[in-house]
Amino acid sequence: MRAGTVLRAATALGGAALIGYGLYGLLHDHYITDPLDVLGWAAGGLVLHDGIWLPLVCLATVLFARLVAPRVGTLARSVLTVLAVTALALTAVALPAALRAGTPRVNATVLPLPYLRNYLLALAALAGLAVATAGWAVLARRRAGRR
Amino acid sequence: MDLKTSRTPRAARLQALLRRGPLPEGAFRSPLHEPRTAVVIGRWLGAALLICFATGLFSHVLQDPPSWLRDHLPSRPVDGYRVTQGLHVISGIAAVPLLGAKLWTVYPRLFEWPPVRGVRHALERVGIAVLVAALLLELFTGLLNTLQWYPWPFPFRQTHFWLGWLATGGLLVHVAAKAPLIAEHWRRVRPALVERRGFLTAVAVSVGAVTLTTAGQTVPGLRRLDLFAPRRPDLGPLGLPINRTAAQAGTTTAPADWQLVVDGPRAYRLTLADLRAMAQVTVRLPIACVEGWSADAHWTGVRVRDLLDRAGAPPGARVRVTSFEADGPYAVSELPADHARDPLTLLALRVNGEELTADHGFPARIIAPNRPGVLQTKWVARLEVL
User: Fold this and answer.
1) How many domains are contained in chain B?
2) What's the rounded Cα separation, in Å, for the pair A143 and A145?
3) 20 to 30 A Cα–Cα from B212, which one of A147, B16, B242, B265?
4) Do A97 and B213 touch (CB under 8 A)?
5) Are B197 and B269 within one domain?
6) Same domain for B282 and B205
């Protein structure tokens, strides 16, 4: 118990020290001429993520819970969750590449693949699986209901 | 406070709001906004972030070694930097869905009421704000750096480095603050929540998906699954990608009177013909870029060790390598003693059987094992024994 308390306090202090070192570095690095820029982008990211992105995700989960979940079984719900979360993750990673690949570049070996096509194909595959899963689940429900 | 004592209905509503917060009880319907889900995803995310921090520090030290360390940087294992920096970018990309899932799981805590319950609680919440803001910006800048896309006004490398300390510090403070809750939910409880199992599977699958579709830029066996990585190790002139082109560096044509200057106790100069006439060695070494891609190639040229011996360099000497590119942060690099003496370290004249192109560093470039690609200086003009 006591060792646990000491460890916990040491972790907190160590964390605070790392934060202090990072802040000191950000403020004193001579390449970073305006640390307020960094603060602005960090705060902006926080506001965009927590103020816009997450409310949208929560709205989507509410719609899913109201419209889809009651019509399909547990397994189908899990599969649909897997497909939706995977689509979001791939979007976060692939969309910047697809957007950037659309702009003129001096170095042809950066972004040499057809990113937009690959992204749309991946989304289409996930959407196809989702439609198949939902269709199968709804049919299975109906058949079970008829019996 | 009793409604009767309120002066107006509006004031009463405000008082009620202050008592229970902006969101009604049960505003978040999903059963997954609970500690066990947060602990499981938090463990995965914590592991990814610690790998990012450790490998990032290693990369930083290799690029900017402190004076007490610069004589102790090993040139082996050959693939050392390729593995650490590959892991850095792989775990960073894996952290994208993990961070998303973690923040969604704990989102209702943002609206906890009252917002502050004392000094300790306030510090904890400020710490979480630092952690989340630093992590979001860290993953965003890191991902875009792999695309060589810099839409922000601050320098990438320094900011990414310092934010890494803030994020890791924030992580430690967060773990310390939540220690009892983490301990309580560390182990699985039966019966398991069905939704949780589905959600954790979803998060694991999404991590697998982003990893498998990007890791091919450094992991040879995954190249065929590479859909979204910004580089393909086999795509580029002479079968090799380029980080900085000759056009970008202003080195499309080498100076007509190009000679290699070797400065040391017995300084001398060599023409390209002289270099070609020396004993040529072919080695297989990777270019391993800070941006997470790596590619093997066969390099042919003169051993740097031989050039140094001829200049009378002492065994423990470091070597400053200067490019003829006009400017740029990597126009000058330093070879640590271990690398300078390594038999695999070459002043390369050819790659994959062909003469170097301007983009690959014609007429001569450095290639050494266990080293960030940006330090494998191209368009070499001068070697200087230190």
Assistant:
1) 2
2) 5
3) B242
4) no
5) no
6) no
B205 touching chain A per CB within 8 A: yes
Give percent above pLDDT 90 in chain B. Answer: 85
| Residue-number span of the structural domain to which B277 is assigned | 241-385
Cα dist. A99→A119, B62, B291 in Å?
11, 32, 18
At B373, the pLDDT band (50, 70, 90 cuts) reads: very high
Choose the mutation target among B60, B135, B137, B138 for the interface with A, i.e. most A CBs under 10 Å: B137
Nearest Cα neighbor of B240 from B344, B92, B367 is: B367
Q: Which residue of A has its CA nearest to B228?
A: A94
Q: Flag if A85 and B205 touch (Cβ within 8 Å).
A: yes
For residues B153 and A37, the answer to whether their CB atoms sit within 8 Å is yes
pLDDT for residue B91 is more than 90? yes
Boundary-marking domain end, from B225, B250, B266:
B225
Distance from CA of A119 to the nearest CA of B (A): 8
| Pair B70, B117 in one domain | yes
Choose among B189, B252, B97, B115: nearest CA to A90.
B97
**What confidence category does residue B107 fall into, taking pLDDT thresholds of 50, 70 and 90?**
very high
- Look at residue B25 and tell me if it is in a domain: no
Characterize the bridge pairing of strands B260-263 and B380-385. parallel
pLDDT at B103 over 80: yes
Q: Is the confidence at residue B4, as pLDDT, over 60? A: no
Are B231 and A74 within 8 A, CB to CB?
Answer: no
Contact B49, B95 (CB under 8 A): yes
B145: which chain A residues are within 8 Å (Cβ-Cβ)?
A: none
Interchain proximity A89–B232, CB inside 8 Å: no
Chains A and B: how many Cβ contacts under 8 Å? 226
Q: Where are the domains of chain A?
A: 1-33, 36-71, 72-147
Report yes or no: B186 at the A interface, CB cutoff 8 Å: no
Nearest chain B Cα distance for residue A7, angstroms: 8
User: If we measure between CA atoms, which residue out of B288, B374, B365, B371 comes closest to residue B328?
Assistant: B374
B96 in contact with A, Cβ within 8 Å:
yes
